[in-house]
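look at this fold:
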Amino acid sequence: MVNIITKSGTNQLHGSVFEFLRNDLFDARNFFNRDPSPKSPFRNNQFGGSLGGPIVKDRTFFFGAYEGQRERVTSDFSLLVPTQTQVSQAQQIVSQDTVNPITPNPALTKILAFFPAPTNTDPFNGSAPGSVHDTNDVDSLIAKVDQQIDSHESLSGRYAFARSKQVFPLGGLGFGAGSRLPQFAQTSPTRVQLVSVSLLSTLSSNKINEVRFGYSRYRTSFSSLDANFDTSTLGPTFDLNSGKLGLPEIDFGGIFENLGASGFSIPRGRTSQTLQILDNFTLMRGRHTVKLGGEYRRAVVDSFNDNLERGAVLFQPGGSRQFYGMSGKCAGRLRRRRNHDTGGLLPRGHFPFD
């Protein structure tokens, strides 16, 4: 259990301000951000202030505080990307098959445009530097009013509010990891509110009673920057039949970077609400203190966690592929367009492209 006490105002007006600054001027480069590439930017500002004082001298007081944070960080990666040689050879293989000739699908050509162009010269092992500009914006405030009703009773009310918005990379090369490319970075907005009221009564020189009421609400969610991307814009031949926006997770067996956000637990979110009413009675007698009371607490949690909402496609060297979370109609359509079997003849990093 954690008890937090909020500062109260007094008969004198007092305040404070602060600023904390950290940036890349004082930091070394990270492992993936090397010369001669420009140094990745980093900015972290935390700032705020507080003010407290009297509303009615000796009777009513206020106190308020605000804190904000603005953070900009760059996450650097060395990305594995297909080369033009690999793409051209894969298209040529499937189009020249005399048994099952297939015309390269324009929609899949558009999907490959999500990859950055390789910066090295190896025709079969493309790589490119990549970076995600992480953001973390936080605003939080608290306000408190204290009322001294008389010499035996005091009333206190408090309201707290906080919100944040984060953008950060959450991907890798394994199945279910999602993409490390910046257009598929994760987003996570959060909003918190809390209100509480307490009445403290001094019943006698050795008896104190406190009644408290509290309500809190917490809401957060996780999604991706491409949450509103309409796959139908890729063309009518790329109909996933999922009824959902966003590119599905497309994995290439660790040969290239994944595309799309993770197919698992994206999107997800929850809203938690807590209501609390309690009464504490304290009795002090001699060297002993006795404290007793009761509490009523109600918690309500509404959440959602969507797995394979957009679907997932796994390609592996040699032409094998698997489909997850797609309707039979959709998976069948994709399979009909990808039923070319290369017999494992494609070099490492080459995939049937149709």
The two ends are 59 Å apart (CA to CA). The longest helix spans residues 84-95.
